[in-house]
Every structure is written in structure tokens, then in C-alpha cells.
Amino acid sequence: MRAETTTSERKAAALAAFKDLAHDPGVPKPDPILVVDDVVRRFGGLTAVDVKHVEIQRGSITALIGPNGAGKTTFFNQLTGFDTADAGSWTFNGRRMNGVPAHKVARAGMVRTFQLTKALSRLTVMENMRLGAQQQKGENFWRALVPSFWRGQEDAITERAEDLLTRFKLAAKRDDFAGSLSGGQRKLLEMARALMVEPELVMLDEPMAGVNPALTQSLLGHVKDLREQGMTVLFVEHDMDMVRDISDWVVVMAQGSVIAEGPPDTIMSDERVIDAYLGAHHDAPLSESELTEQLQEAEAALEAEIEEETQK
């Protein structure tokens, strides 16, 4: 009963933080854990990310959605040190994170998972979990020669790994090679391994991609549980039912920019979001001039094709 009360309190606190906020891109949050300003990433002449300002509220589950090619994963890569932004700045807990390498970003408390899982297939599940722990004494060559320096820490790491594997229902797989796991089990392993660093912010890139329906509800429950454990969650997802189910707030990207923010119940009916997914004027009839222009273009293309055939 106490656990249910705590859960409802966490959820209520997250929703209260968003109450009365404007549904505008970059709207300020009461207690942001992550603040992003003017982040740009270009690939040649293509601007993949151009985010002016966005804030992620502490203690909430925020969904990052948008059409394919909107720049969501590229944006994740900038923030977590897996790619380098061409411009802009961002802070995590007030600390500037520009140019910080990925392992130091994780050490600071901001971890991520990937759309395509990164489990080390030739290591066991337990070995994968142990690798997730930070600042292990045994990683130093000279200390590794003296077990008394690192044995106690390794035992503590193993104990935490056992607890997480039990929570994620992977305890029976602890000695199996990670490569033998199903797609859904690898997602669970990656999420569990990310928690080995005891993060404050967990960033999930399409956690449901490739997961069979039998494991979907389990994964949903684990994502919700992250918030109940006091963590902040930012996730990329295309499954709108999942977004409605677990998110407290939704940020929408299109063509590299944030175009809308709001609660899940209202964001789906936002005209800016509908246009981003379906195209402008998707629900409006074509005018007479537009119909005539389309007909003329089609006739010109057909005539050109006929002429090309006759000249062969």
C-alpha cells in the first residue's frame, strides 16, 4: 500500500510541475535537470539538429517524438557525448557538458541506451552488468595484481548487478552469453546495465523497437519504475500508445527543431504535430488553382514520356 502511495505521489509531483505551462517550444520548467541552448549539428549541407532551447523537468518522464529523420537520435548523440555538436551548449545539473566524452557524461549521472542494443554478445549477462559499473579499482594494472585492493568493491558491484537482474527478471540468464538473449531481453539487459552507474537521468532511444508484445508490458513497467526510483527519464519513441501511457510531457521534433511541447493528451491533436507527421494541408481540399496546376504537371510529364518513347 505504501509503495502504491509513493508511486501516485511521484506521478502527481511530475504532473504538478507541468500544470499551467504554455505548450510552446522551449517553455521554461520549474526545476530542469537538463537545459539545452542553440545546439546545431550539420552533415555537409544538411542541418540535422537545430534546437534553440529545451528544458527537461527533473523527476518526470518526457517523451521525444517526431517523424523519421527529425533528428531525435542525432540530438541524443550530441547530449551524451557520442557525437560533437557544431554549435550550442547544454548543462546537466547546472554543469556545462559541451565536449565532455561519453564515459564522463555517464559518470556524471546521465546515461543512455540505444535503438540497436550494444550488449557484448561474447560476454555473459553478469559480465555485461559488471562492465557498467564506474571507477572500478581493478581496472588499474598495478592494483589488479593485488586482489585485496579491489575484491570488496567487486563483491559490491556483483551484489548490485544481482539485484538489478532480479528486478529485470534476468537472474536466470546471469551465466548465459548476452548474444543468446532475445531482442527484448537485450533491451532489458541494456536498461539494467545503464542503472549500474546509479544515474539521475536515463535516456532511452526507442526502447520498444524490436520487442515482442510479451515483453512490451514488462518494459513499460520498468520505464515507469525509473521515475518511482527518483530518476528522470527522456525517451525517444514512435509508439503513440506507449507515449500516452507513460509520459508526463512530450517534446516534438521535426526537421531538426523542436516545434511543440505539451502533455500527451493534447499534443496529439496539436496542428503543428499533425502537420509534421502528415504534411501541411493534409486535411484540406485542394483549391481549383492547385488542382489545375497538378493536372498540368501530370500532362506535361506524360507528354515528355511519350515523346521520349517515340524518339527511340
What does this structure look like?
Strand 4 (87-92) and strand 5 form a beta hairpin. The protein has 312 residues and is α/β, with parallel strands linked by helices. It is globular and about 85 Å long. The chain has two domains: 2-119 and 181-280, Rossmann fold; 286-312. The strands form two sheets. The protein has a six-stranded mixed beta sheet, with helices on both faces. Helix content is 43%, strand content 20%. It has twelve helices and ten strands.
List the helices and strands and how they pair.
Blueprint: H1 2-18, E1 32-43, E2 46-57, E3 61-65, H2 72-79, E4 87-92, E5 95-96, H3 102-108, E6 110-112, H4 125-131, H5 141-144, H6 147-167, H7 183-194, E7 201-205, H8 213-228, E8 232-236, H9 240-246, E9 249-254, E10 257-262, H10 264-267, H11 271-278, H12 288-310
Helix pairs in contact: 4-7
